[in-house]
Amino acid sequence: MSNKLLELIESSDAKWVDFRFTDTRGKEQHISYPASSIDEEVLEEGKMFDGSSIAGWKGIEASDMILRPDPETAFIDPFFEATTVVVTCDIIEPSTLQGYDRDPRSIARRAEEYLKSTGIGDTAFFGPEPEFFIFDDVKWSIDMSGVSHKITAEEAAWSTNESYDWGNKAHRPRVKGGYFPVPPIDSSQDMRSVMCERLEEIMGEDRVEVHHHEVASCQSEIGVSFNTMVRKADEVQQLKYVIHNVAHQFGKTATFMPKPIVGDNGSGMHVHISISKDGQNTFAGDEYAGLSETALFFIGGIIHHARALNAITNPSTNSYKRLVPHYEAPIKLAYSARNRSASIRIPHVSSPKAIRVEARFPDPTANPYLAFAALLMAGLDGIQNKMHPGDAADKNLYDLPPEEEAQIPTVAESLDVALQALKDDHEFLLKGDVFTKDMLDAYIALKEEEVQRVNVTVHPVEFDLYYSC
């Protein structure tokens, strides 16, 4: 049987093989080995490494772990000077030779297996849309004397009175005005095109579907076609890697932080989901907007578990500065065809094969493996327990009478609220041993440290509110 990794090493005359994996927070980590040391035995047995330094993983007393490469993920890195083949790895527990219970990719693999075991479907398809910002310069400071941050961006709406060596050319989007005028207002066209070229080198031709400026100043999106769940999570990590590095090459800095700018739109990661069985889309039917009853129950599961899901799909304190009214933020737990004010949207499609649901509240700080697995598990729980979501909401949910608005539930208001919801509602994630209680406890502890750090840090707004009290 052919092996993509070994074939790529040979055909490219690679000098190095870069083993990559994703930690609990969603950041890729890597370690490089000489290409000459990678053979069939390594592919089968993996490479040992110390997992004790990975936040939320094992302590030093039980730190030995195995990196097992997935050959089908191999690609030639487009940024390293020495020819290097990159391969994504699963983390294997040496004592059991099974996927480590805190390894995000292993969790997503178990979610795919659980889907098959239910008989509901055999394949879950995911199509996320992570948005991002591109700035010229970013500084911040946190010490006992005070805190500050400063974003510099020539394209930004606030830069109308800045002085530049080459002159202030004045063409830039206004607040919420970036969707989507032509250059020179859109200043990142060429950069995004290079990002797309690098992505297609990694993922293959015809994978990139679109790129464009987004609503906020300095905000962009690159659309890549859907894939099976674990492979799509792999591709999200590849997309982030490419965007960060191409921006760096252009002398810019890219971020997937949801709300880096006060008063403008934030970055989401809308996630399109469908389930297939025997090649048929189980979400297509004769119900509302061409959905099946299965799809409606799936939506019901996501809505029912949404606040617990927020702890995983919106895992930063900054996430909840995006999830506020009137910034196209999908805070209302309702579903609708084409209505972007609902947290679940049913996109208009030309064929039943393309019927899907779109969860609009996730954002790109989410670990894609954990977020996709959690969304799938919530939806499956909805199907298994026939959680009908009720009637669709086709009104503008941002402009309802107060008494009607109060009847519609919302996403969590903050990360600590979401973490408490996950503590109270997580049994659906434990089915099939996809997530474990031990993993969720470690995840919650890690995130509570972030909440506490923000909570104890004095904020400039507090000076504005209280200094003269």
UniProtKB/TrEMBL annotation:
It comes from the Bacteria. Residues 104-469 form the GS catalytic domain. It catalyses: L-glutamate + NH4(+) + ATP = L-glutamine + ADP + phosphate + H(+). Residues 12-96 form the GS beta-grasp domain. SUPFAM superfamilies: Glutamine synthetase, N-terminal domain, Glutamine synthetase/guanido kinase. Keywords: ATP-binding, Cytoplasm, Ligase, Nucleotide-binding. Its main location: cytoplasm. Belongs to the glutamine synthetase family. This is Glutamine synthetase.
